[in-house]
Amino acid sequence: MTDRRIFLHSAAGLGLAALGLPAFAADDANPRKRRPMIIDALGGIDNANLPFTRRDDDGFGIDARSLADAKASGLTAFNMTIGYVFGAGDPYEKTVAETRAWNAYIAQRADALLLVRSGADILRARDDGRIGVVLGFQNAAMMGDDARRVETFAKAGIRVIQLTYNGPNQLGDGSMAASNKGLTPFGREVVAELNRNRVLVDLSHSGEQICLDAAAASTQPIAITHTGCRAIADLPRNKTDKELKLVADKGGFVGIYFMPFLAVGRQPTADDLIAHIEHAIKVCGEDHVGIGTDGTVTQIDDMPAYMKGLEEEVRQRRAAGISAPGERPDIVPFLPDLMGKDKFWKLADLLAKRGHSSGRIEKILGKNFLRVAGGVWS
């Protein structure tokens, strides 16, 4: 999420039977009263309408409006990307600085936010009326050549670490690396340290071979927090059935994003999202699928201005060599018919209309992520 908007903003686990969550009934006229557990496995709550000059003043782009929208959406918790993803600067120093800054910010906003270190913290956030913030990385380049840095970041509150971004790093190849190199010896050291420190391994953006290698090597369930299904849309950022099934077989989690990669050559819609969710359920089973929107909640106010910024973002990402097929200046990185503070409620209603049970919908909205991630973190 954050990584895709950097340029744009510049222009087995917990006992869920004890959760006490109400059943999701398709005929209930007011879904907000059901208070389902809603967890965005990769997302944000910033206001994309804010100019860059105001973002620092408003706490990483989180202002009163975006916070209110996030609460109105029913969001319980979200995995927030921080630290180095790509570009200039020392990956380790940049990541240390951002980790400190986010810890300080969440502490300052303890009235509304809660740093998530365990599954129990997500439940506490819900019960307190706050939003849980899971801090995570979308690249492990900051490990340098020292896998022991995992422990440093784990102690600082990091709970999800993605092994690669789109390109290669010292752990292996991302989805846009033609060589499709698997998990390197150092990558295996990092995975072992992630397991030892009970940090969730994320294989989003990875190449196929490193995904398969890491899923096999990990002694803990892993996640692909934000992806789509290659069988539905044949694009590099989406995962093959082989990858999806292995992650599920190891007890892991797959989050489907609300991104351009859900369709080929056109703007995807909510129908495409449903198709990917249903295919993932077919491959993985309903206990291993959820959502990782790769976006924020507050809707865009000025779409023409946004599209100009998007054009520049795409241009710069292509120039930097970090773009992936499917990123285009005429396709927005969200679903136009599933945006704003009602998007999770709309998704739930669409799934119910498709005949999915209330129990399955609750799993997709958040229970599956809580079970898998909470089990790793415990």
From TrEMBL:
> Signal: present as a keyword of the record?
yes
Q: Does the keyword Ribosomal protein apply?
A: no
At the top level, the lineage of the source is: Bacteria
Instruction: Give the range the annotation lists for the signal sequence.
Output: 1-25
Q: Which Pfam families match?
A: Peptidase_M19 (PF01244)
Keyword set, alphabetical order: Signal
Instruction: Please give the InterPro entries that the UniProt record associates with this protein.
Output: Metal_Hydrolase (IPR032466), Pept_M19 (IPR008257), TAT_signal (IPR006311)
- The protein's name: Peptidase M19
